[in-house]
Amino acid sequence: MRGVLLWLPFLCLVAATTEYKLESIVNEEYGWSAALRLISGDNKYGKDTKDLRLDVYFQTRERLRFTITDPYTARWQVPSFTIADQTKPMGPNRGEDYQVNYTTYPFSLQITRRSDLRVLFDSNVLFGPLTFQNQFLQISTRLGNDSSIFGLGEHVTNLKLPYNTYTLWNRDLPTPENTNLYGSHPFYLQMVDGKAHGVFFHNSNGMDVLYRQESSQDTLTFRAIGGILDFYIFTGGTPEDAVNQYTQLVGRPYMPPYWALGFHQCRYGYRTVETVVENYTIADIPLETIWTDIDYMDNYFDFTYDPERFPPAQMKAFVDSLHAVGRHYMPIVDVGISNTTGYFAYDSGSALDLWTKDGEGNDFIGKVWPGLSVFPDWFHPKSAQWWEDCLKVQHDQVPFDGMWIDMNEISNFCDGVCGNPPKPIANSVDEFDPNFPPYAIQNGENKNDPLYHSVLDMSCRHYGGEREYDTHNLHGYMQTWRSRDAMENIRGQRALIISRSSYSGHGSRGGRWTGDNRSTFRDLEMSIPDVLHLNLLGIPLVGADICGFQEDATEQLCGRWIQVGAFYPFSRNHNSLGQKSQELYRWESVTNISRTVLNIRYRLLPLYYTLFHHARVGISSTVARALFFVFPQDIQALSIDQQFMIGNSLLITPVLTEDTYQVTGYFPPMGRWYDFYTYEEMPYSGNVQLDAPLDFVPLHLLGGSITPTQAPNNILREARKNPFLLIVALNHQGSSTGSLYLDDGGSIDTNSTYIQYRCQSSRTGGSIRSTREKKDYPEKALLGQIDVLGVSTSPSVVQSNNQKLSFTYNETVSVLSIYLTNTLVASDFTIKWK
């Protein structure tokens, strides 16, 4: 529907400071456009733009886009490469699930979901009116009463956002709460009456997002210091639907190699890594990948190895030995390149004129680990090949398997130019000032740090003339993109790229870790909403540093943290220089806990891998999942962020406080729950107190799920040879569904098999059906056993294709175990019992 003229007379009673009038509506192939004419303005942060253009794009059935631009002055817009879905808009009246209403004066826009008339975006907000000035853009939306919103990353906060101002400006901070951090993701998801919708503000400039209550109405106000107003509205449905529609636009999550899902070990300060790997082997703790922090480098120069501590020949022999048994190696690579003549990376980049420029057109010089440094300009058309060439020099010395990229906000040890921080260039708000814009976003812990604090000077320029002022938040995203492509070209395999900085769509390029946390129970607790938060922002491959990065971890903290971190999608132990060693074998109790929970993780990796496949192809988008994603109708679940689920199968209820041996978990009443360890059905509903001694983490399976598992091994290459087992957990209706995705674990373009499982059971019998899709799985892995949970009576016979199968029935816990021989996991079958 193109638009409906709505007159709201009460608006005239309290006039907004800035007012536009809508005129001259024109039908377009993509939707419609209109002119907006300024009637009154405040000129507070610059002159109000007199004439604006509104464009409304009917993009897909579930996605609407609208933009507000200056039709006469070119302004920065986020490059099109950040949008994955470039299909032509379908235009209006093609079955879209939204309608657009407006008021002509004062102009406001209202977008509703057609299927239930739920308001998704409504700019009729008196306390944050539409404003369009040179360095200040503003628009607001009403959220209704008692709103529940999630997203607006990246901040350490509860998953359900409290009223606050959320600043988006990438910078290097050691994860303080309620402060802008490493990534900028101006996307939020709102839950209303059990249904979700999403809103994405496609803008890379610094911004504040004010979440507040005004006149009994919850509102969001977006205040950006540049760019244009460019919004995408997703009609959603379930929370997974809303996130899925978002990732369709910005890019489906990248499919990691299988080995990336194993356990990883790193620290800043290793004198040797050979001993670490040996000790993990002796302790019988799974270890897939060893990492090295910046101290492996020669004077912190990228692409080099310290000739005394990590001589290349010795490191190559070590990595070859890892590869021989199926393990992997990951080094860190920082963003700053030492401007030292004779250093190959600097000389080759200088020859191509690849460095970010200062406001005078000279190479910008900042300071990071190697000292005075220059910074690659990812907008330069030759930067990708230069980056790949440098990495190949390093890879030819030591054949590493993936990349950990850090300091890419860009972090700078100086405020802009070292020794000469920027100064205001004008007193008038009408003069563009990149470092001191008229509106100051709430940057940093003090909420008043200038834009250039610990990053580059905002007057810096990139290839094509783009300003750092506009592109700053894109740097980590672009480096991840270039790094993934380079590693795929060098190795011919899928790449593991873990970055610190990110922007919307980052998940389509690589993964994240949550940054420099601390070894405290509070940091352990807040790691869960952080991981869930980044999952709903389209980055499922994410985890926090297990046991904490800064400060000394205690034995109890590390034991409790691995009980959580074993279930992060990305699982890595990492700590800092000068802290006590915290490898999992350092304490006997932690060693025993780690063996248990990491073997559970490795058993469940077929589930994790399948969920990543779902995210890649758009079946769903998250791997670690908040309870409300699974139970969107449950109001209490909206506030639960100290438990989390893996897909719709496994619920983790960890202990997050010191000297605690019981934990309260919430179990939505609609669910049928089973103890993961015993398979016993648990009569849980609502808040339940669970025993949790130091060596135990409560785990539960949700009825209705079929969970693929595989016998574990301390190295995944060997584990992939083991037989599979399906855990079929029946719901209250006696049914369950699940799936399994299989491929070779690393090929960029791989043969694959996708298997769907369905089970239906009653008191008189039941059946499990396996339906294989796509190509044959190249390996002949076997399905050895199926455990069906919640079978009320023992069957007399179990058969497949009229052939009787061996089975047992545990009457105590109502579990039917079916034993298979010579059954390929990637095969079609129907098993029945009666």
UniProtKB/TrEMBL annotation:
Glycoside hydrolase family 31 N-terminal domain location: 60-206
CDD domains with a match to the protein in the record: GH31_MGAM_SI_GAA (cd06602), GH31_N (cd14752)
Range of residues in the leader sequence: 1-16
Residue ranges of every copy of the Glycosyl hydrolase family 31 C-terminal domain listed in the record: 621-706
SUPFAM superfamilies: (Trans)glycosidases, Galactose mutarotase-like, Glycosyl hydrolase domain
Keywords of the record: Glycoprotein, Glycosidase, Hydrolase, Signal
Pfam annotation, one family: Glyco_hydro_31_3rd
One GO term of the biological process aspect: carbohydrate metabolic process
A molecular function (GO) term: hydrolase activity, hydrolyzing O-glycosyl compounds
Entry's family note: Belongs to the glycosyl hydrolase 31 family.
Matches recorded under PANTHER family: ALPHA-GLUCOSIDASE, P-TYPE DOMAIN-CONTAINING PROTEIN
Name this polypeptide is given: Maltase
Annotated source species: Planoprotostelium fungivorum
